[in-house]
Design a protein that fits this description.
- By secondary structure, the chain is mainly alpha-helical.
- It has one domain.
- It contains 11 helices and no strands.
- Helix 2 runs parallel beside helix 9, helix 3 runs antiparallel to helix 9 and helix 5 packs across helix 8.
- The chain is globular and about 60 Å long.
Length: 194
């Protein structure tokens, strides 16, 4: 549970979506971030994550795509453009775009595949009759917890949205803060090794 609750790219995106677009946008972002973990879990269950871990080229390719996307998110947030722009209307938040951005944030993070590759097998005993079924069940529990925690973050952020919108100086600081967080996560990912 601590692993899910610790702030990472998905949590930060969901909080930013709640502040910029309200509760609906935050729930859509939480859903998208949860969907973004599915390929990583499937890679861990099928063994493809081992290839990502073993192949420096594959790991680096996914890593630098993730870095580029996080830097794009930082720039768009700083410029108050894109999905995380803050305004008085929630109508500008297209559910499809919020979902795709959320999926990409988690999909382009190779650390998730490595995490699931190392984490899921710890809970499957060597004498397990159906190890794939057990790993799928554990993955579904992880996904449910991810959605619930991210949704809680986003709804809490949406609750203070009115205070953010009413103060231009708070908006500017929040925008800079989220842009710096995305840039910092991009730097952290850039220096990640297998």
């Amino acid at each position: 549970m601590f692993i899910i609750a610790s702030p990472g790219t998905g949590a930060i995106y969901t909080i930013a979506a709640g502040l910029s677009g309200g509760a609906r946008a935050s729930l859509i972002a939480a859903f998208g971030c949860t969907l973004g973990t599915v390929p990583h879990m499937l890679a861990a269950i099928s063994g493809l994550a081992a290839l990502l871990h073993a192949s420096a080229l594959a790991f680096e390719a996914v890593k630098y795509l993730g870095v580029a996307y996080l830097l794009y998110m930082a720039w768009a947030t700083f410029r108050n453009r894109g999905m995380l722009s803050i305004n008085d209307s929630t109508r500008g938040k297209n559910a499809w775009q919020v979902t795709v951005s959320a999926i990409l944030i988690n999909l382009l993070n190779p650390k998730l595949s490595i995490f699931f590759f190392a984490f899921l097998p710890l809970f499957v005993g060597p004498d397990e009759a159906a190890p794939v079924s057990r790993m799928l069940k554990l993955s579904l529990v992880f996904m449910a917890l991810t959605f619930m925690i991210f949704a809680a973050y986003g709804v809490c952020a949406a609750a203070v949205r009115r205070h953010v919108i009413s103060n231009a100086s708070v908006q500017a600081w929040m925008r800079r803060g989220f842009a710096a967080a995305f840039a910092g996560l991009a730097a952290q990912l850039a220096f990640t090794t297998r």
